From TrEMBL:
The keyword Nucleotide-binding applies. The keyword ATP-binding applies. GO terms for cellular component: plasma membrane. This is AAA+ ATPase domain-containing protein. Belongs to the GSP E family. It comes from Faecalibaculum rodentium.
Length: 331
């Protein structure tokens, strides 16, 4: 059974998957991979229900409490993994997160657009302000933040502290703190603890509650440079999401400096399962002028290139597949 499990991990890695999803219904097991091009179900007859049972054991779940939600972690095929298990009345679901291990990525590797990489280089040298990153799972937000934090620490000698759930890219160049809600380390408590470390740069992955959002803005107001991720589709949606989390418009106007929205796609013609498959990361960046215009008018400024415009332009140029662009931004 170990051999089958390791084969599944290697398959997921080859397809650049960030997660493996399991759904057990009766005597059947569905397995899907969260790949750069979306959630793709495996058509297979090799992996059976016994594989899911073995995975629970390997991830350290309490096998006497399988009627309750649990999470566990472990290493498989040289990959650090985190497993979340959720039982329901007629089914079981599980998600295995595959942690990234490549700490060598640099900002210049994030995009072929020099304007984007130059903007990220400037972020790496900042010591004040608030910048948010948005995008779905698998869009490369964690990788982008890691590259910025690494450069801030190693190049600019800034003290960087990151609060993560879980820690996906372990890196000794800056301090990483993992959320542990069972032992009282929530995002809210974690932000308070980060402040006591006297950091130059604070990174929060990700902001989910009104209290965490409020502490995020407090950290920026007290003179730190704050980077964070938040659940939204683009810059405009991010501003509305902040309002939903109870952040007042005046505070957004004063404290928020930029929102980066991104998507990650296989390069056109590179949809195979090779480890060397190329990917294209596309970014929408709104800064203070666009933020103020969106708050005043509710729409992007005239002539501004929205994320969907950038994605469809990449499809027209042949950089990404048109079907990927249409999947995310139908026209």
């Amino acid at each position: 059974m170990e051999e089958k499990l390791l084969a599944l991990i290697r398959l997921a890695r080859n397809r650049r998957a960030s997660d493996i999803h399991f759904i057990r219904r009766g005597n059947s097991l569905e397995i899907s991979l969260r790949q750069p091009d979306g959630l793709v179900q495996l058509e297979q007859d090799i992996f059976e229900i016994s594989l899911l049972e073995y995975l629970k054991y390997r991830m350290g779940l309490d096998l006497t409490r399988l009627h309750s939600p649990q999470s566990g972690s472990g290493s498989l095929a040289g990959t650090d993994c985190r497993f979340a298990f959720l039982p329901a009345q007629d089914m079981e679901t599980g998600v295995l997160r595959l942690m990234q291990t490549d700490t060598s990525l640099h900002i210049q590797d994030l995009s072929s657009d020099t304007a984007v990489t130059e903007f990220f280089h400037k972020l790496a040298g900042r010591t004040k302000g608030l910048v948010l990153f948005v995008g779905p799972t698998g869009s490369g937000k964690t990788t982008t933040l890691h590259a910025i934090l690494r450069e801030a620490s190693l190049v600019h000698d800034l003290k960087c502290v990151s609060l993560e759930d879980p820690i996906e890219i372990p890196d000794p160049s800056y301090l990483q703190i993992g959320i542990d809600e069972e032992n009282g380390l929530t995002y809210e408590r974690g932000i308070e603890e980060l402040m006591r470390h006297d950091p130059d740069v604070i990174c929060i992955q990700e902001v989910r509650t009104p209290s965490a959002a409020a502490k995020l803005f407090t950290a920026a107001f007290t003179g730190h440079f704050v980077l964070a991720t938040i659940h939204a589709g683009n810059g405009r949606e991010c501003l509305w999401r902040l309002r939903d989390l109870g952040i007042g418009e005046e505070l957004i106007r004063e404290q928020l400096d930029a929102v980066i929205s991104q998507r990650l796609y296989p390069a056109a013609g590179c949809r195979g399962v090779s480890e060397n498959r190329k990917e294209v990361c596309l970014h929408e960046i709104i800064t203070k002028p666009e933020i103020l215009h969106l708050l005043d008018k509710g729409v992007y400024p005239p002539g501004f290139r929205r994320l969907e415009d950038i994605v469809h332009q990449a499809a027209s140029d042949g950089s990404v597949c048109r079907e990927d662009a249409l999947r995310d931004f139908p026209r």
